[in-house]
Amino acid sequence: KLHRSQERKGNPLKCDYKTHKEMKWTRSEVNKWLNPLFRAGYKRRLEEDDMYQVLAEDRSEKLGQDLQRIWDHEVQRATKELRKPRLTGVIVKCYWKAYAVLGIFTLIEEIIKVVQPILLGKIIEYFESYDPNNTRAFHETLGYAAGLSLCTIGLALMHHLYFYYVQRIGMKIRVAMCHMIYKKALHLSSSAMGKTTTGQIVNLLSNDVNKFDEVTIFLHFLWVGPLQAAAVVGLLWNEIGPSCLGGIGVLLILMPVQSMFGRLFSKFRSKTATLTDSRIRTMNEVVSGMRIIKMYAWEKPFAALVSEVRRKEISKIMKSSYLRGLNMASFFCASKLILFVTFAIYVLLGNTISASRVFVTVSLYSAVRLTVTLFFPSAIEKLFESRVSVRRIQEFLTLDEIRKNTVALPQDEKDAAVEIQDLTCYWDKVGYMSLASSLLSSILGELPAEKGVLRVKGQLTYAAQQPWVFPGTIRSNILFGKELNPQKYERVIRACALKRDLELLPDGDQTLIGDRGATLSGGQKARVNLARAVYQDADIYILDDPLSAVDAEVGRHLFEQCICGLLKNKLRILVTHQLQYLKAANQIVVLKEGHMVAKGTYTELQQSGLDFTSLLKKEEEEQQQPHHDTPTRTRTLSQNSVLSQTSSVQSIKDEDQLPAEKVQTFAEETRTQGTIGIRIYAKYLAAGANIVVLLAVVLLNIMAQVAYIMQDWWLAYCSNMTNITTNGLNVTKELDTDFYLGIYGGLTAVTIIFGFGRNLVLFNVLVRCSQSLHNRMFSAILQTPVRFFDINPIGRVLNRFSKDIGLLDSNMPVTFADFVQIFLQILGVIAVAASVIPWILIPVVPLLLIFLYLRRYFLRTSRNVKRLESTTRSPVFSHLSSSLQGLWTIRAFGEEKRFQKVFDAHQDLHSEAWFLFLTTSRWFAVRLDGICSIFVTITTFGCLLLRDKLDAGAVGLALSYSVTLMGMFQWGVRQSAEVENMMTSVERVVEYTKLESEAPWETQKRPPPDWPSKGLVTFDQVNFSYSADGPQVLHNLKAMFRPQEKVGIVGRTGAGKSSLVSALFRLAEPQGKIYIDGVVTSEIGLHDLRQKMSIIPQDPVLFTGSMRKNLDPFNQHTDEELWSALEEVQLKSVVEELPGKLETALAESGSNFSVGQRQLVCLARAVLRKNRILIIDEATANVDPRTDELIQKTIRDKFRECTVLTIAHRLNTIVDSDRILVLDAGKIHAYDEPYTLLQDPTNIFYKMVQQTGKQEAAALLEAAKKVSFRSRPSLSNGHAVTADGNLVIFETAL
């Protein structure tokens, strides 16, 4: 999708508008290039290829670079002048010219609005002094009527022209900002990364930049508003003298009140934003760590965590919604209050009211009212909001950037080198990483040197310890922007042991990898990661423990073929824990507690008698030195190292498919089609209130509208009462002031009460809808099987929680309330016009039909465009978050520019959709206003035709109402379309509330409280697949794990090791039966089952929150128990050093601990749980031998009474097990004591041991021998006593 060819051929829709000249915004042009799109959109669903290419001047790259240039210049000036750089100034400087010109449109539009009432007055005056014989007056009035009609048409065109251009400028600013934010994110230093989080950067891109789209619309009203108000005051004075000041006074009181609302609103907005940030961050962790959360049965504490943040967020949203409701109500009631005050003063001053005066006044007020009470305060509100956003973006843009220290080698020089002397570095606030990784990160330039010398000569390349892949094909991941050289590519793939994997994938190296590489197993990801580094032509290769994620056989292959093969003439810096490789190193550096304790060759170190040799004791038994053809130049740092600091998003390790590691590709994101059914509306509203409340809301709304119309009708009635025609002469009659004013005042009061009441109630209901939908969606997400998270990228799930819920929280209530209000007003206008001139209904009917057809025609395309807009937005975020995870890799390879280009391409695609969204909505609005101006014209000339039968008050009422229809009708229809578009968000959320859920957490059948007391696990003919239609990964498994037995589970990658664990934990439902102490696991609740088994997972996951919450989220344990658990895993000293001890909040996903330490935290969790069954899933793949030994020792001591199942890559961790289960392609290949297995050369286990090298194999055999002479467990094979004492005999093949 990214590199779509510039010319998109073969599409009948592609009308070229390469030049901007063709885009002059006249009616014929609007018809010309949008019509084919609407025709297509009406017939079928629109796809990305139907969109027009983005204009050259709207391209992300161009816009971003223009703004970046001015910003860089400003930063330089600010540094000189010792002040902060100002982002606002930069935006103004870049865009003021283009934007200023648009002010003229606004001015003309507002002038027309002031001229209209004057023409209206002239027409009504003719009716007041109506003389059938005066033809001159009649012709004059016809002229006025024509003027009035032309005004409405002019208004229709100017308004939309203006809106189209301002929104386009808004889009440009937003796109340019996004470009700059992404560019900055690629250059953040490690200290800056500590000050921001992925969630925050995503929020800047998703919410903050959207403020630019909104603020540009209203800014011009800041100066047009006051001008227009001044003109109106002059005209009013002319019409009704000083009484107008009363009304103006009310207006002036309302303005500061509304801008105060705006201020308060922006205060709530920024508080809500921080709460939303933290909710999305928590969601991000929950979704990424879902596998672990499920295995630990920790759904409830996380649900509590999210609902707590959500509760705070909702209470803020509720407050700001009430403010908005009051704001809207004050807008609705303002005109009525103003008229009441004006006319009350006018009449009390002893004047008589006439129809022309009344309706000119009404129209003038309504002309200025919009500007003064809506646009002007909106401009202020949006200005404040965008200031908050600009400040947030500015803070981000001024964070520290990284400075590189590599020196490129001159062509002739061949010696790459890394020179380090007396280097001291600090990790500030971020916490720290392991030594080896810290050293590598300072060589990469990620960790700045405090003092000492660090010189790097030559081009670097880097393979991170936590393998990183980005969404795209496997090939693009390996080439990483370099040209494809087939021979070299082939060599790299063979050296990195990827050849066979690629042959087994459906599309070979063109297979798409999803978000976070979820389609690849951990080992495959590690090898792709290594292949990427090897394919680059660099001088220095920095390899951070690339061998830990693969099994011994593959590890040896990588070491010999790749590190000592392909790269043999390069400088390599390798971190490893696997001591068998040290012999091959030219120089070994041993690090301990922040210092280098030794360096030298293997023999030198052996003689120096350091504790290093204690790590290497086994080696001495080996007689034969391995003979290498070439001396290699590896440096090995034997110490644990750690993942890059970006928010660690869990890679989904699925090493469990068949030997041909299957790759599941992602499901397309669903885009719903067709109209939004009434059922969705019903679901939405029912979520927030019951039927009684909804009926009450409907009644309130109708009452408010009736009171609103009655007040105007009463005015017209009064003006007619004063002006009675007798015998062709106008007689002015005195009115009973108290009676008329009393009723007038009463109606005004009723309007105000109902107006405010209905809004508050409506907003309350709508926010509650959003609240309950979020809760339902979240609980559905928690209860859905893990498979869902494997096939849906994280961005897609988060998009529903951030964007869609965001819309329902803030935009939906306003739009919905607005739509209801306007819809009722439109009905009111038509009703009033019809009561005056009944035949007006004749033209209204066909106009309505055209209307409905247009709306349906438009909505089909518009909904498609809107959906395209939201689906093209997702890749922008996905690209950002995957870039942040692979930040170090991208920078080490110097690929920032290319990633920036890809980002720009994603942005351009989104701009195409956004641009269509702007133009299609204007296309529609122009046509709507066209219809309205026809309605106004018919009404005006109709009144003149029927001049004999009508009185002035009726004409005034009908005309002034129909003129207000102009903007209102099209706004109402656009709002209805908006509501319907937002309903797609409701639909998306509702779709997630109906996800299939896994088995219940608790069932009627509860196991006994002390279950499992023995820990006997039996698999009885178990078949397992991850989804109903997926391939089977375990076939007919029969096995028994006896109480207190330690069982090692081995097998090549994809043999089904992890699937066995998934079946045991019921991450998907297995077929067949699994018994634990005689209880069938599938019959009890998931929590009952999962809480009784402990797991130490492959990827240690820590969650943001305190250390205590990480160990014991349910608060079931005392402090003493927590400390003693930490002591047992030797973390007590580390935690005691933390500022808040157990209460210390961890950084995002615990990135301030090394992988080894995180693994120990997971071990501490298991120690605390005191369960009878412990499963260890490759837990020691990423840790150094010392931590590994510590974990093994703890397991032997603490879990002596338990049944322990260990899945391992390192054979030394499981060779001392009681028995070993060898899996192959999902079937049991062998299951026996290790020593027995090693007697059979045909056995897979035997072959695996041989592949570790001679001396390692001998050591393993020795260890296996020892185990074989230990005492056997007392349980006879094949029999188990169940809880009720019955003897069960299993038919078993063991």
Automatic annotation (TrEMBL):
Pfam family, one: ABC_membrane
Signal peptide: none
PROSITE patterns hit by this protein: ABC_TM1F (PS50929), ABC_TRANSPORTER_1 (PS00211), ABC_TRANSPORTER_2 (PS50893)
Coiled coil: none
Record's catalysed reaction(s): leukotriene C4(in) + ATP + H2O = leukotriene C4(out) + ADP + phosphate + H(+); glycoursodeoxycholate(in) + glutathione(in) + ATP + H2O = glycoursodeoxycholate(out) + glutathione(out) + ADP + phosphate + H(+); 17beta-estradiol 17-O-(beta-D-glucuronate)(in) + ATP + H2O = 17beta-estradiol 17-O-(beta-D-glucuronate)(out) + ADP + phosphate + H(+); tauroursodeoxycholate(in) + glutathione(in) + ATP + H2O = tauroursodeoxycholate(out) + glutathione(out) + ADP + phosphate + H(+)
Matching CDD domains: ABC_6TM_MRP4_D1_like, ABC_6TM_MRP4_D2_like, ABCC_MRP_domain1, ABCC_MRP_domain2
Domain ABC transmembrane type-1, chain residue ranges per copy: 100-364, 695-981
Cofactors required: Mg(2+)
TM ranges: 142-165, 217-237, 243-261, 326-349, 355-377, 684-710, 739-767, 822-854, 924-946, 953-973
Keywords associated with the record: ATP-binding, Cell membrane, Chloride, Chloride channel, Endoplasmic reticulum, Endosome, Glycoprotein, Ion channel, Ion transport, Isomerase, Lipid transport, Membrane, Nucleotide-binding, Phosphoprotein, Repeat, Translocase, Transmembrane, Transmembrane helix, Transport
Alphabetical list of SMART domains matching this protein: AAA
GO terms under cellular component: apical plasma membrane; basolateral plasma membrane; chloride channel complex; early endosome membrane; endoplasmic reticulum membrane; recycling endosome membrane
UniProt-listed InterPro entries: AAA+_ATPase, ABC1_TM_dom, ABC1_TM_sf, ABC_transporter-like_ATP-bd, ABC_transporter-like_CS, ABC_transporter_C-like, ABCC4_TMD1, ABCC4_TMD2
Molecular function as annotated in GO: ABC-type glutathione S-conjugate transporter activity; ABC-type xenobiotic transporter activity; ATP binding; ATP hydrolysis activity; intracellularly ATP-gated chloride channel activity
Subcellular localization: Apical cell membrane; Basolateral cell membrane; Early endosome membrane; Endoplasmic reticulum membrane
Assembly description: Interacts (via PDZ-binding motif) with SNX27 (via PDZ domain); this interaction accelerates MRP4 internalization.
Protein's name in the database: Cystic fibrosis transmembrane conductance regulator
Natural source organism: Astatotilapia calliptera (Eastern happy)
Gene: ABCC4
